[in-house]
């Protein structure tokens, strides 16, 4: 008993010493240039609290490093049919080919580094220049649109990877200009509210749909000749078409991924920070063991090469194939300008909305709905997209996961600087980050879709004018495999349903104007009639004139005149 009390006393003493040390560090830092620059005392924060907030934000958004790299690798990057090992036909990019898959593995390593560097630059810039505790990284949604709608799976789309990067660069530049002249918020308000909400939910469904497929996720959904899609998760799959050859719902990789999804879900239920990471880590760790049915390193030449790279554990990878690959030679295509408009629209809505939400959670908004550092934050956001395009990734944006740091007490840009620092550390673990399997990424994509669906509660489903465009936007994005199609359908339907209101308003206005014109014409006619008949002047019935008498000038002469009629013409 005495030992227990003694041990408790020592623990209390140690805790008290740590608290005193932490307080001393915070007091010292707050009085330095660092503390004054980030306004630690003014915003009622401290150094250690900002550090914890930065770590919480990083843990909740670190999944983007591998998720973004995996999604964008599906585009094929700069890999072409020339990288296929012989004998190779023109369709070697969509069939199993050792040479092409080796090129994809190198591209994925490049994109891991490009994603981390983009997040590093964006987060640090947000902290230093805007002094806001917001983390930035390549956004979910634009990366899926870039891969599956622009470049296509393994380069099967209408636009090359290099041209798509040029689209990102131009879009970022236009975004920067719009932010500089202060039009960003006004443009976002031009889009109907219901379509904006439907767009967010539709992108979530689109991302979840990709996470359920075999090429990028769990493999639960596959092609079917009669119903287009069906449940697969098969033990045996056609490597060329992805069709199920037998053993539905018997894939060990699917069930392992499902366990990871449940781990993430349980963590989010209990508000555990980094829950998205824990599910990915569990599935990835199990998949690293060789000679199992769920291994990421099969007994093949490509599997052996990937395992050899993985065993390096620590290593700095230099970007070789994605940086500086921007090309404008194909800008004469209609698809390029459609992509530019779509990406710009998505960024205006999603990024602006996210930033306002984070500012509201952090308590930065004033009575007019503005917050300190707003203008610079928009500029940093747009500038980060330009940097990302130069590195080979899609649009960079503020992450909603920044709310984790805000809940930890982060109130200054020092939080964002710490987020950037942790992304910098991740650059030295590229061999590990490049070895995350698709069935570990799939659950996180589905969970992102779940999170993005929460906006549907704000749609007025009792109002058909709002409900129909929102539903069409949500439905068509995953079913047509195109974010642009959903946006166009939503806006088009909203305009069509608004024609009745516009017609009624216009008719009422025309009727009102006609009445006013008729009234004015009547008044003019009445005045014209009066002027034709003559001007009626009312005179008194009698009046007197006074003048000097001609006989005696000084004596006044009085003359009285009486009219029989009261009016004279």
TrEMBL record:
Pfam family, one: Xan_ur_permease
Bilayer-crossing regions: 111-139, 159-183, 195-221, 335-356, 376-400, 412-433, 468-488
Membrane topology: Multi-pass membrane protein
GO terms for MF: purine nucleobase transmembrane transporter activity
Keywords: Membrane, Transmembrane, Transmembrane helix, Transport
Organism: Phaseolus coccineus (Scarlet runner bean)
GO terms of biological process kind: adenine transport; guanine transport
Cellular localisation: Membrane
Protein name (database record): Adenine/guanine permease AZG2
Record-stated family: Belongs to the nucleobase:cation symporter-2 (NCS2) (TC 2.A.40) family. Azg-like subfamily.
GO cellular component: plasma membrane
InterPro entries the UniProt entry points to: Azg-like, NCS2
